[in-house]
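We give this protein:

***
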Amino acid sequence: MHMIELNNLTKVFAAGGTEVKAIDGVNLSVPEGAIYGVIGSSGAGKSTLIRCVNLLEKPTSGQVLVDGQDLTLLPEKLLRQARHNIGMIFQHFNLLSSRTVYDNVALPLELAGASKSEIEQSVLPLLELTGLDSKRNSYPAQLSGGQKQRVAIARALASKPKVLLCDEATSALDPQTTRSILALLKDINRQLKITILIITHEMDVVKTICDRVAIMSFGKIIEENEVEQFFLNPRTDLAKEFVRSAIHEKPVAEIEARFQSEPCEGARPVVRITFVGQGVVQPLITRAARQFNTDFNILQADIETVNEKAMGFLMVEIMGEPEGIEQSLQFLQGLHNSPDNTVQVEVIGYVS
């Protein structure tokens, strides 16, 4: 079942007498219980997209279905009720400075008319879940950025939503705090079975907790896949750029002056190998080197954790006699067709 479905969603803004399509015919399905990431550069339309999910921005056209209900068809009263099933957290926390941690978390329940005992029964477990027990009487000014975001998360969960929307929720945080917030979101997803939709420009967020990812550009979804396959086999140029940034791939100074995009006589291929599992690629390279009498010069190597799986990234230069190089290359490229689809090979250029 899909918890969120966007069908041919469009959002047009009027700007200076012209119309700007922030969202352009987007179709997107988020499975129930998933952590789904939408990534893109600034101005891609990500924040507008997520604000359309709870109708903070009313779409120009298209459908927004949450838990099977089309929110675009609801009158205001029923829309307010439907929003109780959708929590949202923002980049800058949006806490009330005059209220304590406890009272900030309690706010949605107060507005819904819950009794004092009902509020306490809901808020105290959320403070425990988010690690804020000792801060219940503190004010936002006394909290760190990470603690403020934890308050915002607890507040978003107060109405027991089925969906949690995260709009650049870690962008204002340092890397260590970001890791702790992402771990908290993962725990919330597992313990409470809440579907999470995350908007981000940070690939570290995607590779750390997301199950699936879509990439946006100029208001359109241009690529979508399971996170593991997204890293193994990005199809669009923009997706490849994001993956390279996530694995911290950099030009190799040693070969940069000799690097060329097309083969020529005497040129040696430079190959990028992406693989799942730390023990996957070494036997393959050893086998190719022995069988075809070639050498592999490792230019870059990295092991990353992508959605709790070890994923390796290797850049190598293949050296030897032309025939052996070609045979090694054909052997490696044949791995594209491996049944388990855990190895991807791409020739990225040549050096002479």
Remarks:
- The chain has a mean pLDDT of 88.
- The first helix runs from residue 46 to 53.
- The longest strand covers residues 2-15.
- The CA atoms of residues 47 and 167 lie 6 Å apart.
